[in-house]
Every structure is written in structure tokens, then in C-alpha cells.
Amino acid sequence: MSGSTLYCLGEAWLELESPASLSSAEAFRPRVGGSAAALALAYAALGGRAALLGQLGEDAFGHRIADALADAGVDVRRLCFTSRAPTPLLFDGGGETLACRTRSSELLYAPEQLGAGWAADAEMLAFSSACLVDSPCRYTHLAALDTARTAGVPVCFVPSLRPALWPGEKTLRDTVMQFLPFADILVLTADEMELLLDTREYQVGLFALLRGHTQLVVLETEEGVHAFTRAVHAFLPELSAPPEELAARLLYQISQQELTLKKLMKCSAPALQTLL
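Given the sequence above, the corresponding C-alpha cells read:
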């Protein structure tokens, strides 16, 4: 791999959390949310070079997020800001999520704002599903994937499904299934596999997941984490982490071990375990 930066494409929002239900919550704790931002933060915390590709509102929340990312070591030089829409907010309380992101800033992130120069120092491109809803940002993802493929930059898809952000589960399933084959590496949970494929049996799900460009599938289950190539199955019991943290560790180890996709496909089961 010629580059040295993990580019995380997609959403960063301000997430306001409360232990109480949203209907009775009186105080909220703010934090940077969004799968793309979370992956960039986790990768930077490991010592890797991570950059965020996306757009925030030209408002206090947008600059607060950008400052927090920069303070944590994430490269925000390619982040865009817009006054046409606000930075999105998500409220979490008592297991309930309320999203305030109608025409929010990250969904207006257009392909022409991305440019092609990012791929010059890219080691990997990672994205999630939150910005794949019907919006300009969906087309930005398609443009980035095309650039990555042309430049030989591997792609990691961490769906991190949040049905509350979508108009319906069928739209979510259909859209995510269209994007799965673009990924060289896929990181998801058994719950997400069930939502997408209506099965929790990985022996069944792998037929749908290991297709197209996909060469490695990492699946988190209640028992632990499985890793599959087309030839090898590795398993690490009792491992549990949010998908973004799991993906960050995986991608960091791939970088540290200087594994190309060809080398990754030839890994033994013990070698795959070391990546988890």
C-alpha cells in the first residue's frame, strides 16, 4: 500500500445522550457521534493517521465537532462547512434515538467537493451506511469508491446500521446490499446480517457477503468475532467491541503488518486472528 492515511467518508454529528427516556430527560451529555467520525477517532487513538471526508454546518456545533476531532489527532483539513444546512444532532435516551438531520449538512456533501486528490496518500477508504440515504452524499460515496478502485486503494465498509435514520427497513436493506460488493473488507454484527439477509447463520450469510470485490468479512456474534476469507475461517471467542473500534483495530493491524489485499487473501487462520 503506497499511502499512509485511513480516509473515513461520511457522517459526523453531535450526539446528545441521557440515561433517561427522551420524554423525561432533563440533561444530556454531548459527544462526537457518527460511524465515520467514530472510526477515525478509534484509528487515531491507536496511533494511526486518520482523516475525515465529510461536511459539517457552518455553526457552533460543526466547529465544536471539528475542534474535538482535531484535538484527538484526526486530520480535518478536507472537512467542508456549509451554511445551507445545520450540523445534525442525534438524541439518545433510554434506548430511543431521535435524529434531527433532515437536510443536514453531511447529506449535502456533493461529489465535486470531494475531489480526487485525497487518494494520493490514502492507504484505505472506509465508509458506513448513514449517508447512503437518498441525498447528494450517496453520489459522493459512489465517486469516492470509483476513485479508490482506480487508484488501487482498498475499501472497508462498516455498515453500522441505524434503521431510525432511514424511511423504512426495505430501503435500508436494498441500498446497503447494493453497496456491499464495492467493499474489499466488510465489518458487521450478527444482528446487522440478520436485518440484511434474514439469517444469523454465517454459513448461509457468507454466500451473500463474500461476493463482488469483498475478500474479508469480519462478523461479530454473541460468542465472539469471526473472520472469513474465501479460503480461511478464524475465530476469536469472547471478543466484543463496537463495530467502529473493531474495524479500527483490524485496519491498524493490516497497516502495521503492511498487508496488501493479495497477502490478506493468503493469510492463515492464526494470522487472521492476530488482526482482531
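The first helix runs from residue 35 to 45. Try to locate this feature in the C-alpha cell string yourself.
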